[in-house]
Amino acid sequence: MPAGQARARKLFFSFHNTTLDFQSISVFYPSVTPLLRMSRSILDNALGAVGNTPLIRLDKIAAREGLQCNLLGKLEYTSAGGSVKDRIAKRMVEVAERDGLLKPGHSVVIEPTSGNTGIGLAMACAVKGYSVIITMPNKMSLEKEAALRALGAEVVRTPTEAAWDSPESHIGVAQRLQKEIPGGIILDQYRNVNNPLAHEFTTGPEIVEAVLGTPSTPSKPSSGKVDVLAAGAGTGGTITGLSRAIKKSHNPKAIIVGVDPVGSILALPDSLNVAGAGSQYIVEGIGYDFVPDVLSRETGIVDHWIKSTDEESFEAVRHLMRSEGLLVGGSSGSSLSGVLRWLKSKEGRTIAQTKGANVVVLLPDGIRNYMSKPWFLKMALEAEPSPLAKRISSILQPSSSTVSTDVDRLASGIATLTIPDLDNRPGHAGRRVEF
Ligand SMILES: Cc1ncc(COP(=O)(O)O)c(C=O)c1O
């Protein structure tokens, strides 16, 4: 048995004065195991609640798509800061502290990000007492900026269309600030080895542990291994680290599917990036106009690339919400729609029709980040009225003029509430937020 599997099986828990391994507890006390895992001890601070996210069956979507394999979602929005990027933020800060690069009372953490790494860093720095400046393209949501400011970070917006190596881009502005601000340090998610390592050491082993810890039964068959893993790529740290974790110490034959939006250049072969080259897309967090160092392009790290569109991503988000009850963000829809497309390819069809094959989809963040975005409001408020809507109206309208089931009023109320007057604050004149 490979070392990773053996390690995962050797999780021991003390329960009623008896020492049982995790699999035995799962079999004999299925309802208490989630409780046991969550309540092992008191956490020192929010960073203790980073990661340890659930792996959840997406059975209704699998059935709709005619899949025989298991479709499983790794739900990262349950992490303390709300995304998969909490993991790298925590690791980059802790390693920099260990190496003496971060000094309490002196260091100012500066990071260019599409938002989630910034939120993770701002959370870590709130806990540890460092100042933070986040540079972020205009395209990224108001909710991310609000969360960052609530955590105490300064936020500088940059033009979305600026090329990554121009002085106006989020990367260029962060570099300019770092040169001028005493104690300024860029931990640099695009180059920091602790970005992929966070996933190799935590996200990947958690997925493997969940698969190994779930026995195969006649009603829920399992191959006992991760057969396919799909994830979107931004910096590429997630997919690179996950691939290493799974292929090196669990299943060398696992197939890794990378998802990259049309308009980005991360996919291989390069010919995949020609259609729609340079076009803008709405989904946040994935795709770039340069290849970050942490995205490994070695053969066998990412086996297949799929190009995703906004439309199919948002449609997949709708299914994850409506069918599975999962309040995920846009890039989760990209990963899901990407892997569903791959499962229709020649190689993918064999896996799709194999009972018990485990296909894991990474779901990087939640809808908290996108509540005011038109794509979400449209999906939520223009959804087909449920059969109950008419019944509710007929019961309530004759007796009360204050009760409303009117979707337009709801929509305008939400739009007003979610656009606070931040532009009136000093230093914010001319700031632009794109929707
Ligand atoms: C919402 C979202 N999805 C996906 C990703 C991609 O992760 P990675 O940078 O590890 O490739 C990010 C990265 O910021 C993100 O914020």
TrEMBL record:
Gene3D superfamilies: 3.40.50.1100. InterPro entries: Cys_Synth/Cystath_Beta-Synth, P-phosphate_BS, TrpB-like_PALP, TrpB-like_PALP_sf. It catalyses: L-homocysteine + L-serine = L,L-cystathionine + H2O. It comes from the Eukaryota. SUPFAM superfamilies: Tryptophan synthase beta subunit-like PLP-dependent enzymes. GO terms for biological process: cysteine biosynthetic process from serine. The keyword Glycoprotein does not apply. CDD domains: CBS_like (cd01561). Keywords: Pyridoxal phosphate. Its cofactor is pyridoxal 5'-phosphate. Its EC number is 4.2.1.22. Pathway: Amino-acid biosynthesis; L-cysteine biosynthesis; L-cysteine from L-homocysteine and L-serine: step 1/2. Residues 48-365 form the Tryptophan synthase beta chain-like PALP domain. One of its GO terms (molecular function) is cystathionine beta-synthase activity. Belongs to the cysteine synthase/cystathionine beta-synthase family. This is cystathionine beta-synthase.
